[in-house]
Amino acid sequence: MIDLNADLGEGFGRWSLTDDEALLSVVTSANVACGFHAGDPSTMRRVCALAAERGVRIGAQVSYRDLAGFGRRAMDVPPEELADEIAYQIGALQVFARAAGSRVSYVKPHGALYNRVVHDNEQAEAVVSGVLRSGAICDGPLPLLGLPGSRLLAVAEGVGLPVVTEAFADRAYTWAGTLVPRRDPEAVVHDPEAVIARAVGIARDGTVAALGGEPIAVRARSLCVHGDTPGAAQLAWRVRGALASAGVRVEAFT
């Protein structure tokens, strides 16, 4: 059994990046941009309404404040400030999730923040603090979605927050189990057949090939298919079909 998630609502104003409507027919969890790397109030409202209508879980995809860089630029944000910004983003999304008759069900960092909290304990603690601060409006502590073995999940577990391990079918891995940086030309797996095979391997066997070809272990309850790649919705449908054929049930983790 595995959850299928995608990054959605990553547009701004008249500019649109992801095919939200098509992807919300495939995935079981939606990582909704909360306005700091992408997204705006109307987009957040629309995606939450569609997700609620289709029974898709709504997650807050929180980021550094970096609209110009799509949240992918390294930043040094003071921990207290970062914690407040995480809580702010979750709260903003909760308004629209509640208006749609649903709720924010989990939190996932985006881009540079996601990679930073794999190894940076201080920034991981700030993210966890932000999630805890949002608990009063979220019916209790929200699960954190992140990379297995990351400092983020370790810190979250240390304070009693639920954690969910995540893997990526369309991203390259290092031998250490971390994601290959986006600046590397081989960071993204573009071949659809390879993405499908990797998704099945992760979900069924708990393994994926690292950049050098060596298989590494990955334990994941959720599988991410990026929504900003060409043909993302069609590929997501093919991944879901391949998982079903391999005997893997696709089901939300919350």
How does this model look, in words?
The chain has a single domain (3-245), classed as TIM Barrel, CATH 3.20.20. 38% of the residues lie in helices and 16% in strands. The chain contains 8 helices and 9 strands. The strands form 2 sheets. It has a 7-stranded parallel β-sheet with strand order 4-3-2-1-9-6-5. Strands 7-8 form a two-stranded antiparallel ribbon. α3 (79-99) links the parallel β3 (57-62) and β4 (104-109). α2 packs across α3, α3 (79-99) packs parallel to α5 (121-133) and α7 (192-205) crosses α8 (232-245). The longest helix is centred in the middle third of the chain and has 21 residues, at 79-99. It is globular.
Summarize the structure.
It catalyses: 5-oxo-L-proline + ATP + 2 H2O = L-glutamate + ADP + phosphate + H(+). Helix content is 38%, strand content 16%.
Which key phrases capture this entry?
254 residues; alpha/beta; TIM Barrel; seven-stranded parallel sheet; two-stranded antiparallel ribbon; 8 helices; 38% helix; 16% strand; globular
Distance between the termini: 13 Å
Order of strands in the sheet with most strands: 4-3-2-1-9-6-5
CATH superfamily: Glycoside hydrolase/deacetylase
Poorly predicted regions are none
**Helical element count?**
8
Query: What is the radius of gyration computed over CA atoms, rounded to a whole number of angstroms?
Result: 17 Å
* Helix share bin: 25-40%
Number of strands: 9
Q: Describe the largest sheet.
A: 7 strands, parallel
Class inferred from helices and paired strands: alpha/beta
Order of helical and strand elements = EHEHEHEHHEHEHEEEH
Task: Report the sheet-strand fraction.
Answer: 15-25%
Catalytic activity: 5-oxo-L-proline + ATP + 2 H2O = L-glutamate + ADP + phosphate + H(+)
Protein name: 5-oxoprolinase subunit A
EC number: 3.5.2.9
Subunit structure: Forms a complex composed of PxpA, PxpB and PxpC.
